[in-house]
Amino acid sequence: MTDELVEAPRGDLALPLDLPPLVVEITQMWLETRRSPNTREAYRRAIRLWFSYCERTGLDPLEMSVRHAELYARWMVESADRTPTPKTIAQRMSAVSAWYKYLIKNDAARFNPFAEADRPTIPRRHSETTALTEDEAHTLVQAADKDHGRERLRTAALIRMLVQVGLRITEAVGAEIDDLGFSRGYRTLRLTLKGGKPHFRKLPVETVYALDQYLEERASRAGVELRDLHGPLFATGSGRPLPREKAWELVQRIARQAGITSKVTPHTLRHTWASIAEARGAKPREIQEALGHESFETTLIYLHSRDQLEKDPSQLVASAVE
């Protein structure tokens, strides 16, 4: 599932339906069993959309059939201002299916209409994210280094962290200064993976230089020594963690300034890191370990998408039949 933002207060689901109190309580419990705030918010959005469909059609979600679940997939396409991708539809249906399974487990429902419903088929190594080329990545980093304004050093450090280390955006904006460290002569960043597993990344010299410049300036503004600076690694002017949506906007702005016309998101930069790492000789298993992927298949999705445009043979055909 996709990502986070602000976690709703306990019990505040803002549901459009008048559901039995037991179902509302179990739904909240179900959301709280998701360890990741990203997953919780994605599931919350998915279940709200399902409830909206039930309300608009006048159907009781506890009395649904498989046919209703499949009609819901069609409704998502026909009612949206922007047609969702097959992957998005499949993810939303998967989230609602997980909700039904939890209700059944807790004796609050009898049947899961999504368990047998047809869902969009997603190729095993499908990815809608296309990595930047090495030249584009270089141009992006240079554009960040030349950025202007009060937070230009933060911009440069964040872009380098995403491009040169391949962090998830949530890992970057969720990191604390105290997560920085040293090990075996390397500067490191401590991350926490799913299940609370600690994960350490080695920071390249170029990334460290940009990060140190940013943190030194921040310490100077705060009137403290660098060693006494604490808090979020990437902070707003008020010292709060940089919001994820602001980081997204920053990445897209720098991409425009770099003259990159393709869609660029923080996830694009993670794919780009994997792409360049493999092209420069890193082994797939090394890339998997660095990115913290539990499944090697996830890493292969990143690598499979690397040259999908360059390997498209359409130009060969067009040249033959011009």
TrEMBL record:
It comes from the Bacteria. PROSITE patterns: CB, TYR_RECOMBINASE. It comes from Thermocatellispora tengchongensis. Residues 21-104 form the Core-binding (CB) domain. Pfam families: Phage_int_SAM_1, Phage_integrase. Keywords: DNA integration, DNA recombination, DNA-binding. This is Site-specific recombinase XerD. Residues 127-315 form the Tyr recombinase domain. Transmembrane segments: none annotated. One of its GO terms (molecular function) is DNA binding. The keyword DNA-binding applies. InterPro entries: CB, DNA_brk_join_enz, Integrase-like_cat_sf, Integrase_catalytic, Integrase_recombinase_N, Integrase_SAM-like_N, Tyrosine_recombinase_XerCD. GO terms for biological process: DNA integration; DNA recombination.
